[in-house]
Write a structure and sequence with these properties.
heterotrimer, B: mainly alpha, 2 domains, C: mainly alpha, two-stranded antiparallel sheet
Chain lengths: 104, 124, 503
């Protein structure tokens, strides 16, 4: 069972996602970048899961983990979109650089 | 290594298929280009929208109330991911599995009940 | 593949309802609050807070019976463990949840908030923390983390039409989600190289991979960093002050105490059960995080003019103290035991004193409508009770006897010394220096309260609502009693032995 190409794809997606989170200013695009990272995780999990499944047919943790990641990611994004919507209603913009009333 | 070349060979099939697909499309369009007459007119470059003259730009905002529907759909759709693996082995899980899944579905249904009582499901 | 799977025999896992009773009670309360919220009018909404409070207290009953029973209950193939350690922390989460409900009752009812949903989200978050205390599996740790975080993101933004609260929520959300995504990537790598999500099965395999697989180090670091965000360790703390200031104050108290404690619980589970064999990876990481966190937290706290922000940075510094014992946890079994105990004790005491401090800030803010340090001027002249209570909590945070904080700090020093190596001693010195720095800002607030004049000359007494009084009495009693008789606390924490169960 070959997993390297999947892991490579996962690593590339992870890097693109992290870059997007750090570089993008539009809140929706940041959310999409976070989704990219989560999808990188899912690719990793499914690839590793298939690899372990090939050696030990009872080992399905990777696939199960991926299902949970999918379900929880949907909940996270639901909340995230609600927050972005609220920001948009209150200040007519979703540019994250403008969200700076509080200075850390 | 043989496993690896097997993998590459499978992708070769995909590559050939893609090349043939692109070649076919491009070839036929090019063939049409050679044989058909070319008489450009301004009207021909308008966007065709069921015979009606297009109004406004292509970018238009959709109603925000779709958002709640989309969200509810995504939530329930994604929770269904847990139902499929369960359904394939329902006989083996028997009563235990049935009760567990009932609890899961009832809790989900409570969410829907809540949305209904908060009048989210009503079209405004 | 599916046809192949269908040939497996399948046995129903044994579900120990007694062991799950606390979680079931909280979940049932959540359902009741949801139904109340959905089917009653605006006038009966107050019931939500009462039901939530009662539910959290009722859930303590099975925790007590389980503790009395004393048996370690292991479920789902080792993925869910109910032992003394988990029970002490569940009691901590339930009690902090209850105190937060007490703090919220008036605040949420009087302000511009959605009331029913507030308590639902609070209960969901407490439920997540309770699951976290028992989780010994990467999947259940992940689900528990999200169950406790997602409601917290919403609570931080709970103030309607308030730009600061929106900002608090968005910042917390983006940092939290990004951190959990990075943590998940680490988890996927760990699963990939060990073939299991059970911490107890990961531990032996991770030890074998020491030299052969550098990528496993990456996985461990990613996972620990993910929880570093949760406990607001420097340099992953940037969300904390903004979120604490912008969020409604009871939510701030909840985030600063319960949510942070849950992050530490996850770190303890992971390090003590899963990553035990790789102390060459987590010890230096924790050392650097602890030293940075306490130093930078304290230095920035010095410059704050807002009490909530000051408490936020002081909480960051305290997180540094709590991280410190993890830096020596792997050096010997005795050191590991000491470190575990000192962290659990610190978490319990930290919860009491910090919730108390927030309760006083809320009571004062009811009159002054502000949390600036100046507005506390002359507090003693018109609210002596609150001033004495605040002084007790500040003494405790600074580590001055007879308030409980000194006992917590002594525990940290003992743990650091028990390692008996240079890194432990150096870190102990860093902790000591930081404790001295912390006197400066705690002392400044004390001086303002006791000696300064009232800024606007308004000395009408503060009317403190019953629920906040109750919260103050509970937290002050706990702080004082533990400070005077530490044996009360050690009676509960001594039986804790995480090493025995996971391995």
């Amino acid at each position: 069972m070959l997993v390297n190409q999947f892991l490579f794809l996962g690593a590339v997606l992870f890097c693109i996602g992290v870059y997007g989170v750090l570089a993008r200013r539009n809140a929706v695009l940041v959310l999409m970048s976070i989704e990219l990272v989560l999808n990188a995780v899912n690719i990793n999990l499914v690839a590793f899961g298939a690899m372990w499944h090939a050696t030990d047919p009872a080992n399905l943790s990777g696939q199960v983990f991926a299902l949970f990641v999918i379900a929880v990611a949907a909940a996270e994004v639901g909340v995230g979109l609600a927050l972005v919507l609220m920001i948009y209603r209150n200040r007519q913009s979703i540019d994250l650089d403008e969200v700076d009333l509080l200075k850390g | 290594m043989s496993e690896y070349s097997e993998f590459v060979r499978q992708y070769l099939t995909v590559a050939i298929f893609a090349a043939v697909g692109i070649g076919l499309g491009a070839g036929l369009l090019g063939l049409g280009r050679i044989f058909r007459p070319v008489r450009p007119q301004e009207q021909k470059y308008l966007v065709y929208e069921s015979g009606v003259d297009p109004v406004g730009t292509g970018w238009s905002q959709s109603q925000i109330r779709y958002y709640i529907y989309a969200l509810l759909f995504v939530m329930f759709d994604v929770e269904a991911v847990f139902l499929f693996p369960w359904a394939t082995r329902l006989e083996a899980y028997s009563t235990f599995g049935l009760i567990e899944m009932l609890i899961f579905v009832v809790i989900l249904a409570l969410g829907l009940l809540y949305a209904w009582r908060k009048k989210v499901l009503r079209w405004v | 593949m599916l046809a192949h799977l269908a040939s497996f025999a399948w046995d129903a896992p044994s579900v120990d309802l007694h062991a799950l009773a606390p979680e079931i009670v909280v979940a049932a309360t959540l359902v009741v609050v949801l139904v109340i919220d959905a089917f009653t009018g605006e006038e009966q909404r107050w019931a939500a807070s009462s039901v939530a409070g009662i539910g959290l207290l009722v859930a303590l009953v099975p925790v007590a019976t389980l503790a009395y029973d004393g048996a370690t209950r292991v479920m789902f193939g080792g993925g869910y463990v109910v032992d003394d350690y988990a029970l002490v922390l569940k009691a901590l989460f339930l009690l902090s949840g209850y105190v937060v409900v007490l703090l919220s009752t008036n605040y949420i009812a009087e302000g511009d908030y959605w009331e029913g949903e507030y308590y639902q989200l609070l209960l969901a978050s407490v439920l997540g923390m309770m699951v976290m205390a028992s989780a010994r599996d990467l999947i259940s740790i992940f689900v528990a983390l999200e169950l406790l975080s997602i409601p917290a993101y919403m609570l931080a933004a709970w103030r309607k039409r308030d730009l600061k609260s929106d900002e608090a929520g968005v910042k917390y959300y983006l940092m939290g989600v990004f951190a959990s995504a990075v943590m998940l990537y680490g988890m996927s790598v760990i699963y990939g190289y060990t073939g299991s999500t059970l911490l107890a099965e990961i531990a032996p395999r991770i030890g074998e991979l020491v030299t052969s697989e550098p990528i496993i180090t990456l996985g461990i670091v990613f996972v620990l960093i993910g929880f570093g965000f949760k406990v607001s360790a420097v340099p992953f703390h940037t969300w904390a002050p903004d979120t604490y200031e912008g969020a409604p104050t009871p939510v701030t108290a909840f985030l600063a105490v319960a949510s942070k404690a849950a992050g530490f619980v996850a770190l303890l589970n992971l390090i003590y059960v899963g990553f035990w064999g790789r102390h060459d990876v987590y010890e230096p990481l924790m050392w650097v995080l602890a030293a940075l966190t306490m130093t930078i937290g304290n230095l920035i706290a010095l410059r704050q003019t807002n009490v909530v922000r000051m408490l936020a940075y002081s909480g960051i510094a305290q997180a540094g103290y709590i991280l410190a014992p993890l830096a020596i946890a792997g050096s010997s079994p005795e050191a590991a035991d000491q470190a575990l105990h000192s962290i659990v004790v610190y978490l319990l005491i930290y919860a009491a004193m910090n919730l108390g401090a927030f309760a006083v800030v809320m009571a004062v803010a009811r009159k002054t409508r502000s949390a600036e340090i100046d507005t506390f001027g002359g507090l003693f002249s018109y609210a002596p009770g609150l001033t004495v209570a605040m002084s007790l909590f500040l003494f405790s945070l600074a580590g001055v006897p007879p308030a409980a904080g000194w006992f917590a700090k002594i525990g940290i020093f003992q743990a650091l010394a028990s390692a008996g190596d240079t890194s432990g001693y150096v870190l102990a010195v860093v902790v000591a220096v930081n404790s001295v720095i912390a006197f400066a800002y705690y002392g400044r607030l004390m001086r303002v309260m006791w000696m300064d004049d009232v800024p606007d000359g308004d000395t009408t007494p503060i009317r403190v609502p019953t629920s906040i009084t109750a919260a103050l009495v509970i937290t002050a009693a706990v702080t004082l009693v533990i400070g005077v008789v530490p044996g009360v606390l050690t009676h509960f924490t001594d039986p804790i032995n995480l090493l025995a169960l996971g391995r």
